Amino acid sequence: MTTPSAAKFPDRESRAWHAMSVHEVIAALDAHHNGLSAEEAARRLRIHGPNRLPEMPPRHPVIRFLLQFHSVLIYVLLAAAVVTAAIGHVVDSAVILAVVVINAIVGFVQEGRAEQAMGAIRAMLAPKALVLRDGHRMTVDAADLVPGDVVVLEAGDRVPADLRLLHAKSVEVDEAPLTGESLPVAKSTAEVPPETLLADRTDMAYFGTLLTRGTASGLVVATGEATEIGRIGHLVGSVGRITTPLLRQMNRFAHWLTFTILAVSAAIFAFGVLVRGYDVGELFLAVVGLAVAAIPEGLPAILTITMAIGVERMAHRNAIVRHLPAVETLGSVTVICSDKTGTLTRNEMTVETVAVAGTVFDVEGSGYLPEGDIRDRDGAAGAEARRARLRELVRGACLCSDAQLRQAGGGWRVEGDPMEGALVVLAHKAGIEPARDCAPLPRIDTLPFETTRRMMATLHRDDSGGVIYAKGAPEVLLGLCDRQADPAGESDLDIAWWHDRLEEMAAEGQRVLAVAFRRTAPDKAEITDADLEAGLTMLGLLGIADPPREEAIEAVRRCRAAGIRVKMITGDHGATARAIAVRFGMAADRVVTGRDFETLDLPALARMAREVDVFARTAPEHKLRLVEALQSCGEVVAMTGDGVNDAPALKRADVGVAMGIKGSEAAREAAQIVLADDNFASIAHAVEEGRTVYQNLKKAIVFILPTNGGQALIVIGAILLGLALPVTPLQILWVNMVTTVTLALAFAFEPAEPGTMARPPRRPDAPILSPFLIWRIVLVSLLMTAAAAGLFAMAADEDGSLDRARTLAVNAIVACEALYLFNTRQLVAPSLTWRTFTGSVPAVVAVALVALLQIAFTYLPPLQTVFATVPLDIADWLWIGAAAAAMFLIVEAEKAVARRRRA
Ligand code: ATP
């Protein structure tokens, strides 16, 4: 049997790419080491189609609609409709059915909204790939890859298509998604025999697997469905459903409530029939009324919509929520541990200071514009010899870099690491043309930068032999050097002089990079760590400025006001970290390095971690320990990260935050939130939105439950006292399913309350409803009961018309709801303000809509027939308004008392 993909790509089904040499693969795919041209790539894309796996077919809308009927509540209502019809109340039965359908429509729309939010998020997280096109590195959508493309990978990248490796340095790949093997597999470029099984093809990297170590480049041999993972029929999961611990808890609560209410209804039914001897049919209708009155039918849908809208709002503010529970956790974050480079600072690097033995240079210019003078602080004597050393240093730094500088849209852009880009810019300022001046020293091998090693090195060859250039953290490189290049040639390393320069640059907040070299044998083909153990010659130091983000300074201040500590965790030098921390107003008098706390046990580390704000020269494993230490003393920790090694710390943190721009795929997948702009300010926004969503969920619950409570009390009272029901079951359904849902929807759009970021974080174990809010729900239930029952009794006394009394009662309940909406916009702060009534467009629209609905309910003949309503006169409406206003004022008075007690 042929698979569909085999039929689509017959020629490539049989190709054993792993058994071909690199040359053969390149020839077979009509490709080139420098990549395809843009036109050729576009042509191939038209032939092969996008590099995407087929998606799980979304559920058919009809199925989705039908699934809305699968819930306990609906079964209860359907049973009620059947029995109601059986005892001859056909209209009631029809209305119950209509309500069931409305409920399904609301659920259907809400689900669509939620899926839309999640779909948008997935689109924002679409994978990218670094390719060579026309010899230039460029980032493209992974979906645009075609066979023949050359893809460049580094640790943390997900392999974006099936690749035959062209180059692999210390590469390990996690192939679990494809083979199930959980240990990473080492890769190289040597071909393997044709019969080799998939899991042992060490010269291939397959779509969907993860590069956990090293750097590699590979030729795309298959894309999309033609890849190995595509062939096994792997489908991309469809969008997840919106659910979080709180939503699940509320769903369970709704279920529990449903069963309790059914039990209570059954008991009341039994009591009425057996003790009081009521008519079975009448009582059944009353009990159905009780059940529908007490069950908060709209609550789950409203909560889900509120969550979905919160997620959308966060995405607008550049925080993409991958994992929904984060929305809730964000509101209770007490500590944010942030990277420095790119998150607190702009990651727009400029070399400002250069030191070669005995001389310091100041570099002018800003950003990536490759223009600016380099001034010698020492004046004229011997200037030329010092400049020659400077050029040697700068050329060494460029040789040991991968970034490229490109002119784009009137400005200059760096492809690759911004810090390396700054080195290329410096080269231009020093009169070096990297493409021309580095060409005589082709690169033979690379030891890539790793945070644990804190340096990188490259091996080059020229006419006089081999040479290794290394660049990295000065403490590391100074420890490996015993000589230094100086204007006269070479001399012994003057370590004290270099340390002074390092401290000077770091105290300015500059990130300091050292560059060194050593000569090697001409036939050397590979660098290993052993080549970098000693015997290097220091070329010089580079001081690189990376200005703080202004908006991040403000965001750190806001976090502090919100009771959240912000800690900087950086791989940079302590003095650099301190200088930057001071700009952010952090406690920078004590800076601790990763090495300092390696030996501390957990309690000691926890104590230190709470006190100290700045951690320098940290490695990813230090981040993990810090998270654990902070959590051990009850902190709720958000931690940022970008590298593959940050993944454990991101997973362990209460909220893992990955960088969307410079973060690796591995970090993004481990994180709960991805920042689209890598900016600290977006974390602060996400916290604010998280607090707002939680607050809005709380408001929606506090708003919805009293309506149910009030109506249930009215019905129970009437049954127990043997009186006519002040509201019929149909009228109750109208209130719960139409007016309450419409009004409660306003809370999904409620903006943050003014003081949201001026309060301490919520305790994570605090229940969503405090005793105070439960009291509020009880109070308002009683007030609504009083309003409705009072008007009902008054009207019944006046003229004895049951329908008129009921019409009054229902309108009183809805009027109370409408005003209570404004009470609830602030749970404790006063609502008797102009802003409360006009500040939220959704609230105003919802109330206007409900007013129209009530007019229709009261005056429109068809609705009058169904709901047994009658027209009301002006005096009636005044009574209704007065009752609702009284309830509003009583709730405001209660808030005032609560505020006074809190103060
Ligand atoms: P932060 O945590 O603030 O974001 P970082 O994670 O960028 O800092 P690292 O990337 O771990 O810090 O860098 C630590 C040190 O390693 C730097 O101070 C620098 O000296 C050196 N370094 C960084 N990038 C490179 C590179 N591409 N080549 C050589 N050395 C580097």
TrEMBL record:
Membrane topology: Multi-pass membrane protein
Family matches, as PROSITE patterns: ATPASE_E1_E2
Localization per record: Endomembrane system
Record-annotated membrane-spanning stretches: 65-87, 93-109, 256-278, 284-309, 700-725, 731-752, 773-793, 805-822, 834-857, 877-893
Taxonomic superkingdom: Bacteria
GO terms, molecular function: ATP binding; ATP hydrolysis activity; P-type ion transporter activity
UniProt keyword annotations, A-Z: ATP-binding, Magnesium, Membrane, Nucleotide-binding, Phosphoprotein, Translocase, Transmembrane, Transmembrane helix
GO cellular component, one term: endomembrane system
Major subcellular location class: membrane
Pfam families found in the cross-reference section: Cation_ATPase, Cation_ATPase_C, Cation_ATPase_N, E1-E2_ATPase, Hydrolase_3
Domain Cation-transporting P-type ATPase N-terminal residue range list: 16-89
Presence of the UniProt keyword Translocase in the record: yes
Signal peptide extent: none
Protein name per its UniProtKB record: P-type E1-E2 ATPase
Species the sequence originates in: Tepidamorphus gemmatus
Highest classification ranks of the organism: Bacteria, Pseudomonadati, Pseudomonadota, Alphaproteobacteria, Hyphomicrobiales
